[in-house]
Amino acid sequence: MDDFDIGSRLKAMRTAGNLSQRQLAEQAGVPHAQISNIEKNKISPSISTLRKVLGGMGVSMADFFEPEREDNPGPFFGRDELIDLTSRVAINAGAPESGLLVLRQIGDARLHNLQILHEVYEPGADTGETMLQHASSEGGYVVEGELALTVGDEMRILKAGEAYLFDSRQPHRFQNLSDTRTIVVSACTPPYL
């Protein structure tokens, strides 16, 4: 996904939906200038911001990144057949010390009503100060490293071998506060990306 152009894709989808930048900004609840800056690739939106913007058009993250998908009905998937949803999408745009977060999905989440992700958090990776919230349940297992997880008012650093499970309608945030890579395998139903 190195050459995935978020700005051009957003502009094409906004235009196809007959929305002006101002209309999309109002529907998404973000500043008008933010839409313009994303479309011009002046900024890379955080996952939560991109989800908010896409929500203003009624588009899921999976649909937004659809051109990157290859159909494999399964039931088996090779390493190269995972769907890269957010590879190299900047997290906490504007913070140069932020690390990368890579999310790779197994198969067609919508078809099975279950999203299974292989997540890699480089040091400093963060889903953003704006807490995530969506109508799902999600759980995960830390395979390697440490994952700082905030759910509501609680925060805990989970180490390899530890896990989580919660109602995703609660505000939540994922961070790698360590100086080593963190790997997580997670599941969410219904799918939200």
Category from helices, strands and their pairing: alpha+beta
Full CATH superfamily name of the largest domain? Jelly Rolls
What count of helical segments does DSSP give? 6
Do you know the CATH architecture of the largest domain? Sandwich
- Poorly predicted regions are 87-97
Mean pLDDT score: 84
**Helix fraction by DSSP (H/I, runs of at least 4):** 10-25%
* Overall CATH class of the largest domain: Mainly Beta
Strand content: 25-35%
Number of strands: 9
Topology as H/E string? HHHHHEEHEEEEEEE
How would you write the strand order of the largest sheet? 1-2-3-9-4-7
CATH topology of the largest domain: Jelly Rolls
Overall form: globular
N- to C-terminal distance = 16 Å
The main pleated sheet reads as:
6 strands, antiparallel
Quickly count the domains. 2
Computed CA radius of gyration, to the nearest angstrom: 16 Å
InterPro entries: Cro/C1-type_HTH, Cupin_2, Lambda_DNA-bd_dom_sf, RmlC-like_jellyroll, RmlC_Cupin_sf, TransReg_Diox_bact_type
Keywords: DNA-binding
Organism: Nitratireductor aquimarinus
Domain HTH cro/C1-type: 10-64
Description:
With 193 residues, the chain is of the alpha+beta class. It folds into two domains: 61 residues, 434 Repressor (Amino-terminal Domain) (Orthogonal Bundle); 116 residues, Jelly Rolls (Sandwich), CATH 2.60.120. It contains six helices and nine strands, in the order αααααββαβββββββ. The strands form two sheets. It has a six-stranded antiparallel β-sheet. Strands 6-5-8 form a three-stranded antiparallel β-sheet, with no helix packed on it. β5 and β6 form a beta hairpin. α2 packs across α4. The longest helix is centred in the N-terminal third of the chain and has 11 residues. The radius of gyration is 16 Å and the shape is globular. It starts with 5 loop residues before the first helix and ends with a strand. It comes from Nitratireductor aquimarinus. Keywords: DNA-binding. InterPro entries: Cro/C1-type_HTH, Cupin_2, Lambda_DNA-bd_dom_sf, RmlC-like_jellyroll, RmlC_Cupin_sf, TransReg_Diox_bact_type.
